[in-house]
Design a protein that fits this description.
With 432 residues, the protein is an alpha/beta fold. The chain is 25% helix and 19% strand. The structure holds alpha-D-glucopyranuronic acid. The site of alpha-D-glucopyranuronic acid (GCU) has 8 residues, from α7.
Length: 432
């Protein structure tokens, strides 16, 4: 079996990105990863060490969370007081009769014409109530996750696509099911999970000026004239905030088990899932699929996408302060292993793809590995290995990891591992 080390060796090269405004080079050569020292997750600013889980929860966790809010993702507001929910549709015989399909409008200011998200929920009809849930954002609208003709087509802004699936920044009928290979909805239902999702652009369109039409403006008293402070929320924090609002709905739907919600995401949405899981302890399990820089990968390795690169290409994703660390990763008061540690004692799964070197698979593995001391405070087993496993060989217990063969994507292989992981930690009967 080919290991990631040999894959990286085979691809060892330095690429200069031109025309994108960044001056730095992209390193894919393991031997050129600079030496670095990771912040110790158990060390407090006064020099004392956290020795047990109580001290972690009382001091370490709030301190670490605050550093991530201030320096990386930015601070988000809580649940808006006037928020309301409206059932837009409910079909008790969806997908050939095996599921209930609900479409829920979550109105952040309580008004239908105000900022909102539209949550699509499938609930398996014959699973014992309440049902555990997989909750994740989607990239191209709810109608893209399945061919089901009953899914309402997302109305929010979307980037145009030349295949006719998005025209004049609006999704068309042609986009129905376009991302279905990334969504194992039928399999989830068969295994007794509900699936809930919404379009991330409902919260904020994903471009530099998108915030003006998203919740970051709508919930601010100055609207699109808002001037953000360097520690205010960026788009990733806003998407994560949306996941928490979806959780608010799940808590009030009696068919769903709010104590068994898996928050997951791929790529930039994996970054959002990690931040949602780190900052909102109601999420029982967190899954990061190929989340890379600003997600599960260690920033200090500067392998593949770097802090400077991501802040240049996506200036709206992180808070203003994060830009201080462009080319200056060693000054970051945190690194991404501590983001994973914030999820403790809840189970977390980090996944990489062998050809996805941009996301730095080894950096993702190492972040998971270096979160272990915090899980150990809870006497919980982490990865159980010291070296990166071969491809397609999942490892771990409360922290799990795999590197799949293939590209940057979320595939049936990934889903199979996530179902098993959730079944194990939720104590569901394992059928396979
Ligand atoms: C870009 C970006 C990554 C991100 C990815 C995605 O490649 O540089 O940080 O994870 O898009 O969301 O697909």
């Amino acid at each position: 079996m080919k290991t990631i080390a040999s894959a990286i060796h085979a691809c060892a090269l330095i690429v200069t990105l031109s025309g994108l405004g960044a001056t730095s080079e992209v390193n894919y050569d393991e031997s050129k990863v600079p030496g670095y020292v990771l912040p110790d997750p158990l060390l407090l600013p006064n020099g004392s060490r956290i020795e047990n889980s109580r001290a972690w929860l009382k001091h370490g966790r709030p301190h670490t969370l605050d550093l991530f809010a201030e320096h990386v993702y930015g601070r988000s507001p809580g649940r808006p007081a006037g928020m309301r929910f409206k059932t837009l549709s409910e079909d008790k015989n969806a997908l050939g009769g095996k599921a209930i399909r609900k479409q829920i409008l979550i109105m952040f200011t309580g008004q239908e014409d105000g900022p909102s998200l539209e949550l699509l929920v499938y609930i398996p009809k014959n699973a014992p109530r309440p049902v555990p849930v997989f909750l994740g954002l989607n990239f191209y609208g709810n109608q893209s996750v399945h061919t089901d003709p009953g899914i309402r087509i997302t109305r929010s802004w979307m980037r145009d696509s030349n295949d006719g699936s998005v025209v004049n920044n609006r999704a068309t009928e042609k986009s129905r099911g376009l991302q279905a290979t990334r969504w194992a909805i039928d399999k989830a239902l068969e295994r007794g999970f509900a699936v809930a999702t919404f379009y991330y652009g409902d919260i904020e369109p994903d471009h530099a000026d998108g915030w003006k039409k998203g919740v970051r403006a709508a919930l601010s008293k100055n609207g699109s004239a808002t001037v953000f402070k360097p520690g205010d929320w960026g788009a990733i924090a806003a998407w994560a905030w949306g996941l928490s609002r979806a959780m608010d709905y799940i808590e009030r739907d009696r068919a769903l088990d709010a104590k068994r919600v898996v928050v997951f995401g791929h790529s930039r949405q994996g970054k959002a899932a990690l931040w949602a899981g780190a900052s909102d302890r109601r999420f029982a399990i967190v899954i990061s699929n190929d989340s890379g820089c600003g997600g599960a990968a260690l920033s200090r390795r500067r392998f593949g996408e770097t802090v400077e690169r991501i802040n240049t290409s996506f200036p709206h994703w992180f808070c203003g302060n994060f830009k201080k660390y462009n080319g200056n990763e060693d000054a970051l008061p945190v690194d991404q292993h501590q983001l994973i540690a914030l999820i403790a004692p809840r189970p977390v799964y980090v996944a990489s793809a062998q050809e996805d070197l941009w996301a730095d698979p080894k950096g993702e593995f190492l972040a998971a590995k270096h979160a272990e001391p915090v899980y150990a405070l809870f006497k919980l087993p982490g990865l159980g290995v010291t070296e990166m496993p071969p491809v397609n060989t999942p490892v771990g217990n409360c922290i799990a990891y795999h590197i799949r063969s293939g590209k940057h994507d979320i595939t049936d292989y990934d889903w199979e591992q996530y179902f098993r992981f959730a079944e194990k930690h939720f104590g569901m009967t394992q059928r396979r």
